[in-house]
Design a protein that fits this description.
Keywords: Signal. It comes from Nocardioides mangrovi. By secondary structure, the protein is of the alpha+beta class. It is built from 17 helices and 14 strands. Helix 4 crosses helix 16 (about 390-410) and helix 16 (about 390-410) packs antiparallel against helix 17 (about 415-430).
Length: about 425
């Protein structure tokens, strides 16, 4: 069963058919209240405005239309949410509605009987979402409805680029190194990274692997769990070259990803650094980390991860993934109704208007206001191949071992070969 579901889980999303950090927490399962009402527990990671307030209003609107239903919301910082969800998966004490990232992670949850099959109950929504739902399907069944799907790239401060004399965004690693040098010469810290949370650092290796490895090698690794191709070591070599330029913020090894003004996203939002490699949710996150609620505003720029010299990957390929609403196996039927409402035209349009991510409901595509996010919609739809985040694709054990060793590479305590060896060792244990 394990190998079957891993194969079916697709460690990738094919954007040709419209193919893209996370979860959160609560301690209470749904229950019948004293007055016969139904309480639904909902965990998400939009813990800053505008997202937090928007979801509160969405829940209130649903409650108004469904007398007797109470939505109990737990909005957390992403990392807290992930930790609490991991504990919930282990204990089986699940929230009714939570964020599911698909891939090998979801396959594990399905194997454990924790996730409700939505294939029949949400057939209309599944049809509307179309190919985007593929990453959350196993053996012909749909276990979650993706509400945001996008790609990772480099967000940057256009004013700081101008101050450093940078007129064009880089398309190759050598050009990126030149821009890093220009920023350093202008006394501007080039890049922030929340390596304290590991996954933001791991995204660099994911991207250098995507640029170094042919698509067929990456696809094969999903099912074979074989990392012997030299391109995986090459990915680490390229990352070492980037690290040698010393581009990151002071204390980056312990910096948090998105929590507060001193986090990696906070440093970019407040003009302390010029760039950050992050996902499509970044504009919304930055809005919650500045006093004026605007983030970088009209100073927001974006460019794709540069091409690697000699790499066999297509420079147009992207690293990405998404977030989907899943319903726990023991949740009441009203939880399914609420998830369907979250994918409605109305709610998805509001999600887009608040710059919370890239909606999957086609009716909401035109509601994306932020020009940089609108650009990402086109990148997402035009990418010939989108590689799902490696830690999600390969599941907790392999992905965790990979991320841990990449963090050590950032700290200068591991080599490119060490990353591959640690990943392969974890993969062998899974076979």
């Amino acid at each position: 069963m394990r190998s079957k579901t891993r194969s079916a889980a697709l460690a990738l999303l094919c954007v040709g058919s419209l193919a893209l950090a996370t979860a959160c927490g609560s301690d209470d399962d749904s229950s019948e209240g004293d007055g016969g009402s139904t309480t639904i527990t909902w965990w998400h990671n939009s813990n800053n405005d505008p997202g937090k307030s928007y979801y509160e209003q969405v829940a209130a609107d649903f409650e108004a239309d469904h007398p007797g239903v109470k939505i109990e919301i737990s909005a957390m910082a992403h990392e807290d949410m992930v930790d609490k969800l991991d504990a919930a998966f282990q204990s089986g004490d699940m929230p009714d509605i939570y964020m599911e990232r698909g891939g090998g992670e979801m396959a594990d949850h399905v194997d454990a009987g924790l996730v409700r099959d939505l294939s029949d109950d949400a057939s209309e929504e599944i049809g509307k979402i179309g190919g985007s739902v593929a990453g959350w399907q196993l053996d012909g069944k749909t276990y979650a409805l993706p509400f945001s799907l996008g790609v990772v790239g480099v967000w940057y401060n256009t004013d700081l680029f101008k101050q450093a004399g940078i007129t064009d965004t880089p398309t190759t690693m050598d050009e990126w190194y030149d821009d890093i040098a220009k920023l350093e010469d202008a006394d501007i810290t080039p890049i922030s990274v929340g390596a304290g949370d590991k996954w933001p650092a791991a995204h660099y290796w994911y991207y250098t692997a995507l640029r170094s490895c042919p698509e067929d090698v990456l696809k094969d690794a999903v099912t074979s769990l074989d990392f012997s191709d030299p391109c995986f070591v090459q990915a680490g070599d390229v990352l070492e070259d980037l690290l040698a330029t010393d581009p990151f913020n002071a204390g980056f090894l312990t910096t948090k990803a998105q929590e507060g003004a001193t986090s990696a996203s906070g440093l970019l939002a407040t003009g302390k650094v010029a760039m950050e490699l992050q996902g499509h949710w970044e504009p919304g996150v930055m809005q919650g980390l500045t006093d004026d609620g605007k983030g970088l505003g009209d100073k927001t720029g974006w460019f794709p991860f540069p091409a690697v010299d000699g790499g066999a990957g297509d420079p147009a390929d992207a690293l990405g993934g998404g977030d989907a609403w899943a319903v726990s196996e023991d949740a009441p039927d009203e939880a399914v109704d609420f998830v369907k409402y979250l994918l409605s035209d109305e709610v998805q349009k509001g999600f887009a208007e608040n710059d919370m991510g890239l909606p999957t409901n086609p009716a909401a595509s035109g509601s994306v206001k932020d020009p940089a996010l609108a650009q990402l919609l086109q990148v997402r739809d035009d990418a010939p191949y989108v590689q799902l985040y490696f830690d999600t694709a390969f599941g907790t054990s392999i992905g965790g071992a990979m991320n841990d060793e990449i963090a050590l590479l950032f700290a200068g305590k591991a080599s490119p070969q060490d990353v591959v060896d640690a990943t392969q060792e974890a993969a062998d244990a899974e076979k």
